[in-house]
Structure formats: C-alpha cells, structure tokens
Amino acid sequence: GELVExxxxxxxxxxxxAGVAAAHAAADNGASVIIVEKTxxxxxxxxxxxxxxxxxxxxxxKNQTMTxxxxxxxxxxxxxxxxxxxxxxxxxxLASEFAAYKAAGSTYLFDSIYLHMIQTYVDGDYIGNPxxxxxxxxxxxxTYEWLRGMGFDWKDxxxxxxxxxxxxxxxxxxxxxxxxFIEVMKDDAEAKSLNIExxxxxxxxxxxxxxxxxxxxxxxxxx
Length: 223
Known about the structure:
With 223 residues, the protein is of the alpha/beta class. It has 7 helices and 7 strands, in the order E-H-E-H-E-H-H-H-H-E-H-E-E-E.
C-alpha cells in the first residue's frame, strides 16, 4: 500500500521484445529508462516465439537456387492489379530490381524489400497499414545488423517457416526460441552500463495526463 514515486526520462510499459528494444535504443541515446513489466520476467510473446526473424538479407539467400515456381511468384506480384498507389510504387521498384537480377543471369534466390512489402500487404488481405508495412520491411535488415552488432549469432542461411511466404526467416545458431533476442539486448545494455531499470511484477494501470500531455504512469505491484 505504500506510494512510491520514481522518475526517468522514458517509461516503457511492457518488457517484451518491442519494449526491451525501445528501452535499449532510448538509453543508448542518453536517456534514463524504466521498464514496467507485469510478469516476473522479461520477454513477453517474443520469448514464446520460435525465435525466427523475417528480414531480407541476400547474403543468407545466395546459397539457394531460384526455382521456376519462385520466378513465377515474383512475376505475379509484379503484374497483379495494385490496391493503391503505394502498392503500385512497390511493384515498379520490384519489377526494376527483378529485371536487373535476370539481366545479370543470376540463379541464386532473389529477394527484395519490395517483395517483402507486397507479400505482407497482399497476403494479409490488404488489412495492414501500408506505411507501417513499408517501415517494418525496410528497417528489418537494419534491425538484423543492429542485433548482430550486439553479438547475436545469426545462422548463415534463411529458410521458410510455417506461415511465411519466402525463404527470409532468420534465427540464431545458439538460441532455440525468442529468448535470445531478449538476452542479447539485455546483456549488451549491461555491458555498456546503459541507464535502464527493470521493474518486474509491476502492472501499469493508467497514464498520468497533465495539460493534454502524458507525463507519467500509475502502476501497482502485481503481488
């Protein structure tokens, strides 16, 4: 029942993959950070995942040969009726990249962030926000390298997993689940002495709003 007031530049609600990454990025840029997590451990759904990360990373795909079926798939995505102007622009860029790939006589597995965007949009029944899809797919390779820089030991090949549409699923050589993402980010933060505090078993209940601006969080101990 004791009221405790804590202060930080940034409060992150939830210590899953997104929360831990956000906290790391903020602290790496000089902010003090508190992560508020309602369970007894960091990880959330990221820990429960299979540990795969979809990102276009051609170096992991060059040891695979492009099949006729895959060629037809790319051509289909290039020529299908676009849903909107942003999809049309993705198709134009994809067609240009694929034409260059074929002109070079390449036979390794082709991939493109534009193909990733189109597949995410089309095979998600056009429900996704195109701007967010574009951001996710374009930044996925950067995130891959960001994690590698922390010591995440990616396997040297990309595969297809259940529910994915292209061999661009990447995973760790060491970790068999999503716990690897959490541990690598947390270990890197500790090695760099980043200013991050982890409040576990603390449940955020409401936001504190002053003059129309969120200035804090009200939370209670989970136990």
